[in-house]
Amino acid sequence: MTGTATVLQSELLPQGMDVSFKLAPAILVLGMLGTFLLIGFVFRVADTEDMWVAGRSIGNIENGMAIGANWMSAASYLGMAALIALSGFYGLAFVVGWTTGYFILLIFMAAQMRRFGKYTAPDFVGDRFNSDSARAIAAITTFLIAFVYAIGQARGMALVGLYIFGDLGFAGFSGYQAMVIFMMTITVGYLTLSGMLGATKNMAVQYVILISAFLAGMYVVGWTQGYSTVLPQIEYGMLLSELGNEFTEPFANSSPYLWIATCFSLVVGTCGLPHVLVRFYTVENERTARWSTVTGLFFICLLYLGAPAYTAFGTRLYDLNSATGTTYGDPGMSGSTADVLVVIAAQFANLPQWFVGLVAAGGIAAAIATTAGLFITGSSAVSHDIYTNLINEDATQRQQILVGRLGIIALGVLTTLAALDPAAPIAALVSYAFSLAGAVLFPMFFLGLWWENTNREGALAGMLTGLTIWVIPMINEVVPTYTTSTGDPFVPVLAQWVPAIGSALIAVPIVFAVTIGVSAMTDEPPIETKRVVRQCHSPEPIGQQQAAEDVVTDGGETPADD
């Protein structure tokens, strides 16, 4: 075990980062983690309404902040800078894709999802298509998305934790692995107490921490190093000529096809992520759903517009201070180093230790906030959609909450084990989850809301098709990283045209065609279902605890047909 830990540590330890225990940053981060636990305890849940949708009581600004924190994960706070640093122009696909997805949510889905008014994303699929089988597939997909997505968050938390707490390995685990275990234990601890209500309250706090830390770091690094004065988001362009052609020549490191595939997958994946869509169920009405999306997009853009600037500052400082000399070439900047470039930039700028610790704390807050949303949606898929709706329909609220908490623990354990030896950098790991959400869930949400003739048979055929198309490139590209010495794809031509990071480009059109074709060739859905879909587009407002189904059926339910 010790030998393995040493190998993992040498591969995962960021180059150039000061890995040592630092008292002031440690106090700062431990205080922050303690605050999260306290908020989780104060807002601990007592019923399923609070557990899954926060009692539908969250307002516009608070939900916008929660959307921002829930969204701006380690992949945004840390991983986006890493991608732009290592791949230049290609990294902008992530900025464009992740931002554009929210415009589609705002225009086509936010208000409609709130009017449909369920607890979870699988809830929508099961009830809209009158199918327990569709609900089960959506629940399994939701759990899988939460697991894959959370691996990147655990990696980010651990890498940042190395800067603050040092190489504190124990029981044969490396310092990196010890940080994974420690951070995930804290996250699981407060989530098992709080549920969605406490998680939302925490997300508002976490957003303030992460955006303050990110913007403060960007402005101070740029100003102290003479790279910028007032608007680093624009002034970083003066550095591009010193950073290599990767930053100025489109597709220097990647093909136009890969850029388009990645961007498209991130757009549709954003619209299919269960932990994003569930935010619309936590608000009072459809108007609040729309405005909280606008507010959330504003909060998100504060970070996204600054990420390229932070990358330019960090890359230049790395080139000037690193023993390897330059970012590119051999050996160049490693993936682990790039993943903490935001922290390393502040360190190389010779800023006070406590300030670098603040920047690091922002990365931890971002990762924990997103992990919270993922674990809540993943556990709700187990408790609400599988256990309560499919296994034990007479489950008490106490039993549902217990199963939900066990689901959070199970996700925490699985994520921790996978993150001990991750297969890819943060943003790549997260992108696999986006491709899955885009391929399987987005077509069901979009067609389910906008074409009333989409039926059970079409949904089942489409979801199974999307899942198959997603699995094939994952096996082709991810499995070799664990089973072969080179890590090269089994079938290189498949990786070129159906990349795991952008497989939704191929999957989504096929899934749409399959779903529409099968629906057209089979019986139309019941008229009651069509009425619910129409009610999702009605201009008449609905009450805080109402859903479209309540308006149509006066509180009745449309049972599953299979």
From TrEMBL:
Keyword vocabulary terms for this entry: Membrane, Transmembrane, Transmembrane helix, Transport
Record-linked CDD domains: SLC5sbd_u4 (cd11480)
Topology with respect to the bilayer: Multi-pass membrane protein
Region described as Disordered: 539-562
PROSITE patterns recorded: NA_SOLUT_SYMP_3 (PS50283)
InterPro entries the UniProt entry points to: Na/Glc_symporter_sf, Na/solute_symporter, Sodium:Solute_Symporter
Residue stretches spanning the membrane: 23-43, 64-86, 92-111, 171-193, 205-223, 257-281, 293-313, 354-382, 402-420, 426-451, 458-476, 496-521
A GO term for molecular function: transmembrane transporter activity
Cellular component annotations (GO), alphabetically ordered: plasma membrane
UniProt-annotated location(s): Membrane
Family to which this protein belongs: Belongs to the sodium:solute symporter (SSF) (TC 2.A.21) family.
Protein name: Cation acetate symporter
